[in-house]
Amino acid sequence: MKKISCLAAFLFLSGCATNPNSIDAHLVKVGDVDNLDVQDLRSARINNFLNIQATVINSSGSIQQLYYRCQFYDGNKFKVGNDTQWIPVRVYGKTTQDISCTATEPTAIDFKLEVSSTGSAAKVYSN
User: Fold this and answer.
1) Of 119, 121, 115, 101, which is closest to residue 58 (Cα–Cα)?
2) CDD domains, alphabetically (predicted)?
């Protein structure tokens, strides 16, 4: 009986645990990001570099401007690589848009995707 109680408690507590791979754990919204939502967030290691891909959905009927960038971290939660540029993208009304980033260092194992919908919240640098 004691084993069953322990098993039931374990299953209950593990069901309440947060998923460390959830979107919220990797998403930072800078300012208001109205009508735009990250619907799916995926990562994979390709050629030993961490690659991020997200699907953004525009729930409004009009074109929305989105700026995004990725920050990458090593196993000790230290940022690796240089700050990436904000990348502008237009998301048309009632559509989805895939966005992606690739780490510049093979030591990257974690990431944060930063998104903003206003140019005033994010400076866009171009070469």
Assistant:
1) 115
2) DUF1425
